[in-house]
Amino acid sequence: MVRAHRLRLPEDRSSARLTAATLALCVLATAGVARAIWPFSTSDGGEDLGPRAAQLLAEMIRYPTINPPGDEGMLADQLTARLRAAGLEARSIETPPASGGGRRAATWARLRGSGEERPLILLSHLDVVPAEPSEWTRDPFSGEIADGYVYGRGAIDAKGVTTIQVMAMERLAGRETPLRRDVILLATPDEETGGLAGAGYLARERPELFENAEYLLTEGGSIRPRQPHLDDRVTTPSMWGVTITEKSPCWLAVETRGTPGHGSAPRRDAAVPRLLAALDRVRRAETPVHVLAEVEDMFLALAANASAEDRAGFVSLATSLDNDPAFRRRFLANPSYNALVRNTISITVLQGGSRTNVVPGTARAEIDARLLPGERCEDFTQGIRAVVADPEVEITPILSFPSRSSPADTELFAAIERVAKRSDPNAIVVPRMIGGFTDAHWFRAQGIVAYGFVPRWLSGDDARGVHGADERISIDNLERGTLTLVDIIEELAAP
Ligand SMILES: [Zn+2]
Predict the structure, then answer these.
(1) Which of 152, 204, 278, 382 is spaced 20 to 30 A from 66 at the CA atom?
(2) Is the pLDDT of residue 229 over 70?
(3) 36-94 pLDDT, tens digit each
(4) Model's pTM, two decimal places?
(5) d(CA 440, ligand 1 centre) in Å
(6) Concatenated DSSP letters for 160-217?
(7) How far is the CA of 464 from the CAs of 65, 157, 430, in angstroms?
(8) How far away, in angstroms, is 323 Cα from ligand 1 center?
(9) Would you give the distance in Å from CA 1 to the centre of its chain?
(10) What is the number of H-type helices and E-type strands within the chain?
(11) Cα(199) to centroid of ligand 1, in Å?
């Protein structure tokens, strides 16, 4: 269905500037849905940074780069054209298309430095997860700007990241003296389904694009704003979470076979009951609690902001989890905390028969297990096989890669700390681990120090829209985020 308002002109463009030819070029017919695609605004170097960032983000959101299939090619081209117009060296890099999809590409741009030190990469992704319009109060792909916010799928994850990184590149391009490092911008396709055809492909096949880079900044960490403390009514400082490591996926397929037949005559070896019995054993399995040094340090840094009840537990997490049963219960009841101290198992996909009266010959499930850094998927799979204890149930990994960590004692981390203290003298800068994964691991594997950190002040309310409804980011965040990222890069690389 064609929705009339998708074809509305953006308010800041006069219709006189659009020729019929441009219009024809700009309307993409994808899967029967006409979508208006507008050429991007260009940087005019003016001081109205927030509104210009909001406009760029809104323009990006109007490209419905839902993955699969992504179709990020046109968006990558628009971004490339904009960066060139700002005087930067920029190109679109072709990447493999998804089956049934259109063109895919990444935007690569470079701001040349003096070369005295090794490059810094700014990484983001152009694809988004789907949005269910009936759950949203606004159109997820119209890039609506209202009440000081830009609304739309990708506003935070991750077109808002791309926006801040592009605006920072353009601002740095206006410097009189060159930085000591090249700054390389890379906005990739295919992050949301694992990055194999995006960052993974580029890291593997096109290493010349970021050869010799020393540092990388990407999504995965932000700033928790200063807030009044719940217990004692004092203001707690802002918390800058810099992600230095991530858990790694160990996704498993669980398959059973049995004799097919009629539902009226059940057999002992039917596939579905056998699968259910196996999954029931997996469901009941408890993985051991294991506090890594990175996680112990993270909670120590969080202790100052913790409730009075939890503070002592956070100060020495491993010991408290061992010795304080009440604290252990409270801590493990929080799903995000629980995921930081153990391997987790989610049973997510279930496939069996399709007719009530037909016994299917096969049944299949998928498990999303996430492992702590240092654990191997092969060992974990062996453990699951032992829990299931049924040789007729086949368990095979479908996605896994080893987790890697970046050190926190680096120049880049120190630069973030100095900028944090200037912004809020009491700020706490926390090296952290996250339960999800980003494209950072492809670059850690190449020896690059990669941090999940983009300066954005996100409250719990702001973060709720990520992969959910009414995703949005404030214009203030886009502006402060850009200025703060510029500060961090200058702190790291200005002569
Ligand atoms: Zn993302």
Answers:
(1) 204
(2) no
(3) 445 566 555 556 999 999 999 999 999 999 999 999 999 999 999 999 999 999 999 99
(4) 0.85
(5) 11
(6) HHHHHHHHHHHHHHT-SSPPSS-EEEEEES-TTTTSTTTHHHHHHH-GGGGTT--EEE
(7) 21, 11, 21
(8) 37
(9) 31
(10) 16, 22
(11) 12
Domain segments of the chain as ranges: 1-39, 47-227+408-493, 248-400
Residue 296 Cα to ligand 1 midpoint, Å, equals 26
**The CATH classification of domain 47-227+408-493, taken from the options 3.40.630.10, 3.30.499.10, 3.40.50.720, 3.30.870.10:** 3.40.630.10
pLDDT in tens, 103-132: 999 999 999 999 999 999 999 999 999 999
Distance 189 CA to ligand 1 centre (A): 11
Provide the percentage of residues in the chain whose pLDDT is more than 70. 89
> How close is the Cα of 124 to the center of ligand 1, in Å?
8
Quick: pLDDT tens for 463-488: 888 989 999 999 999 999 999 999 99
Look at residue 146 and give its three-state secondary structure.
strand
How many A from CA of 353 to the centre of ligand 1? 35
Q: How far is the CA of 393 from the centre of ligand 1 (A)?
A: 34
Total residue count of the chain as it appears in this document: 495
3.30.70.360, 3.30.565.10, 3.40.50.300, 3.30.200.20: which CATH number matches 248-400? 3.30.70.360
Distance from Cα 125 to the centre of ligand 1, integer Å: 7
Q: Is 396 helix (H, G, I), strand (E, B) or coil?
A: strand
Q: How far is the CA of 443 from the centre of ligand 1 (A)?
A: 16
The rounded mean pLDDT for the chain is: 89
Q: Could you tell me the maximum CA-CA distance found in the chain, to the nearest angstrom?
A: 82
CA of 211 to the centre of ligand 1 (A): 24
CA 222 to centroid of ligand 1, rounded, Å: 13
Amino acid at 304: A
